[in-house]
Each structure stands twice: as C-alpha cells, then as structure tokens.
Design brief:
This protein has helices spanning about 1-10, 15-40, 40-70. It is mostly helical and about 70 residues long. The protein has one domain (about 10-70). α2 runs antiparallel to α3 (about 40-70). It is elongated, with a radius of gyration of 16 Å. The two termini are about 25 Å apart.
Length: about 70
C-alpha cells in the first residue's frame, strides 16, 4: 500500500520535472521579493539573487535524476 502511495510522488518524466522546477522558481522569486522589501539596498538584492540560484542548483539535480532513471 505504501509503495502505491509513494509512486504518486515520484517524478517520472521531464515534463513533471519542469512543472516542479516552475513551482519552485515561483516560490523563490516571491521569497526574494519579500527579502527586498524587508532588507532594502544591496543586502536585499543579494538575498534575492540567492533564492533563484538555489532553484537552479535543485533544478539541475532534478533533471539529472530524471535523465539517469529514464536511461536505466
């Protein structure tokens, strides 16, 4: 039963991966906007830049994982 539920949360295709990355990027930009409002100036911009950078790293890892599992 647990295996059937776990399959629902498994990313199987690149399309699903891109949807996950899109959702992550929307959240990261929203968080970055809040950082810019809370910390005006260079500090806010630096924190804003860190948020999408984390999504780039996570997105590349997700896409690489989908490629590896689809080849096997």
């Amino acid at each position: 039963m647990f295996a059937r539920i776990a399959r629902l949360f498994t990313i199987k295709t690149k399309f699903e991966a891109f949807l996950i990355i899109y959702g992550l990027s929307l959240g990261a930009v929203e968080r970055g906007v809040h950082y810019m409002a809370q910390y005006p100036g260079v500090g806010g911009w630096l924190l804003f830049a860190c948020c999408p950078a984390a999504v780039f790293m996570a997105g590349s890892r997700i896409l690489h994982s989908v490629e590896v599992t689809s080849e096997s």
